[in-house]
Amino acid sequence: MSTTLPTSKASNQPPRKILVLGATSGIAEATCRIWAAQGASLFLVARNAEKLAAVAADLRTRGASYVDTAVADLDDTDKHPELLAHAVNSLTGMDIAYLAHGILGDQAEAEQNFNTAAQILYTNFMAPVSLLTWLANFCVQRRSGVLAVLSSVAGDRGRKSNYVYGSSKAGLSAFLAGLRNRVDREGVTVLTIKPGPTRTAMTAAMPKSEKFADVDSVAESIVSAIDKRRDVLYVPFQWQPIMFIIRNLPERIFKKLNL
Hints:
- The protein is of the alpha/beta class.
- It has a single domain, classed as 3-Layer(aba) Sandwich (Rossmann fold).
- It contains ten helices and seven strands.
- It has a seven-stranded parallel beta sheet, with helices on both faces.
- The radius of gyration is 18 Å and the shape is globular.
- The termini are far apart.
């Protein structure tokens, strides 16, 4: 292990206090590894207790100054206030809330079964709205904080291959844009993160997944965007011009494409 001091410790700054929701997702875990090396204090929330414990143990060995966890089903919105208050109390504050909660779902099944579609929409949109409402109000009261949220390039335009998932992310991106417009003047940053396909456990079974973006590179870009208090991040960067073109294709052309 390197003997180089983490950035936050070397600069004599207190460790950043970071809440991570959906901490066992591939992108979230890679991002947390960077923060751990910087000596951050982390509160991790995920559904799978065994995976969560393994992630927490790994982050402690990587240099995190403090790690606490909570096992929770983030779809249970009634429990959000208690969960978030507990997390903030455990961290004795909060500098960053990083929301990586979400599912891809089964598009083919969602086309035939409304309940499947509804679950995707609920997990990817309704549950995050509940979390972000509480977190935004907390940050506004303190006139500080960063809310960094994983959306997706899939939300920029509905495509037949994943339009249910894409719809949930489109709603989330729109919500984040409005939230940003509301809280930016209060000293709170809202970062919408729009990854393209990334190599993680969630995408391992997808065709051509070996060509997807490297998760560690994606995580580095996310940490940099948070540090710079950016508003929107397309990652890898080439997805920004790609999605600009896709968004602006005339519908008469777009509807004939096999996307």
